[in-house]
Amino acid sequence: MSEVRDMVIVGGGPVGLFGAFYAGFRGMKATVLEALPEVGGQLTVLYPSKYIYDVAGFPKIMAKDLVANLLEQARRYDQEIRTEEPAQNLIRHDDGTFTVTTPKGEYRTRSVLITAGIGQFTPNTLDRPGVKEYEGKGVFYFVRDPMTFKDKRVLVVGGGDSAVDFALMLVGVAKSVTLIHRRDRFRAHESSVKELFASPVNVRLHHELKEVRGDGEKPVEAVIFHNQTQEEDTLPVDAVILALGYRANLGPIADWGLELEGRNIKVNCRMETSIPGVFAAGDVVYVEGIGNLKLLVLGFAQAALAVNVAKIHVDPTAKLFPGHSSNLAQAAAKS
Ligand SMILES: Cc1cc2nc3c(=O)[nH]c(=O)nc-3n(C[C@H](O)[C@H](O)[C@H](O)COP(=O)(O)OP(=O)(O)OC[C@H]3O[C@@H](n4cnc5c(N)ncnc54)[C@H](O)[C@@H]3O)c2cc1C
């Protein structure tokens, strides 16, 4: 029989990475399976250069720096982290172990922690002339590195947090930033909207994108229109960012026979799913009596709780309480 690890963690977002650290802290060998080429989940894909203010111990930390720290923390215990390996099937064996399959391999394990977040996500696009043609060549869905837009004339399309954050992030980097939104109000956080209206971003409400025109290589101009007067305007642009939200899909996990609540996996207060030995934490869960608050700090706490409970599942002689990591550090320092 192939190697049986203590835990397979499905999803290498922030919660999965912290789960990997915590599993190591509890003496459990874990393998993290991440569908995307990079770990970090939403922090890496959607807002790497945005500051986060509500992670305990960090008055302010940039999302990508938090991911780097989480990765370093997980690597403390040499946990295996495999990217571009979407988990596909969950096979239950008679001895209580599981096999998680991916297109590249099969991973036998005593427990499973699902931290698949909002699932495998794809950004919403717009069916407008030029959008498909210039995708990746000037039409983007995320701001991974603001410097990509240095000295460029940028048009951001959207009215949610991502659109407003992207526009603000590019102030002082891009040559100019225009933000269009089809409604008269933004759905973004109040403080961001306040900041937006005090910023040099050119905000055009009731406006939509009609067309992206280019020279065959890159966008050159964007045609926008006022959706009440139908009046058109042509803006010179080097880049268009479509921040129109994304579609999330649990994908194959939805067929694993777990009890679901909508698109979320139902867990009890011990982070146990309806399948013994399978746990879940983070954005993917629906906690009985609470629902889902989708916050990093809660996800981290849930991952720690799930691992502590999984430890007892894997080794019934173990204690739920893990002890304090500071004591381990003292012991390590003495030895
Ligand atoms: C713009 C924005 C700003 C935010 N700001 C804050 C903030 O300031 N503070 C805060 O607390 N929270 C914030 N959040 C929420 C926070 O990002 C999420 O709560 C957090 O990312 C949840 O982490 P997670 O690991 O559960 O899921 P995710 O970050 O979604 O990661 C899940 C990972 O699982 C992978 N995956 C999915 N399916 C599979 C599969 N079948 N196999 C393998 N891998 C799979 C995905 O590719 C992804 O990498 C923000 C969210 C957004 C969108």
Protein model, in words:
The protein is of the alpha/beta class. The chain has two domains: 4-121 and 247-334, FAD/NAD(P)-binding domain; 125-244, FAD/NAD(P)-binding domain (3-Layer(bba) Sandwich). Helices cover 23% and strands 28% of the residues. The protein is built from seven helices and 24 strands. It has helices spanning 14-25, 41-45, 63-75, 161-169, 190-198, 296-314, 325-334; strands at 4-5, 7-10, 30-33, 51-52, 61-62, 80-82, 89-92, 98-101, 106-109, 112-114, 120-123, 139-140, 153-157, 176-181, 202-205, 207-214, 219-226, 232-236, 239-242, 246-249, 260-261, 264-267, 278-280, 285-287. The chain has a five-stranded parallel β-sheet with strand order 6-3-2-10-23, with helices on one face. A five-stranded parallel β-sheet has the order 12-19-13-14-15, covered by helices on one side. Strands 1-9-8-7 form a four-stranded mixed β-sheet, with no helix packed on it. The model has no long low-confidence stretch (mean pLDDT 93). Flavin-adenine dinucleotide binds at residues 10-16, 33-36, 41-43, 46-47, 52, 54, 86-87, 115-120, 161-162, 251, 253, 282-284, 294-297, 299.
Rg from C-alpha positions? 23 Å
**Strands of the biggest beta sheet: in what spatial order?**
6-3-2-10-23
Largest sheet: number of strands, sense, barrel closure: 5 strands, parallel
The CATH C-level class name of the largest domain: Alpha Beta
* Ligand roster: flavin-adenine dinucleotide
Q: In total, how many domains does the architecture comprise?
A: 2
Instruction: Give the count of helical stretches.
Output: 7
User: What is the CATH architecture assignment of the largest domain?
Assistant: 3-Layer(bba) Sandwich
Q: What is the straight-line distance between the termini?
A: 36 Å
Low-confidence stretches: none
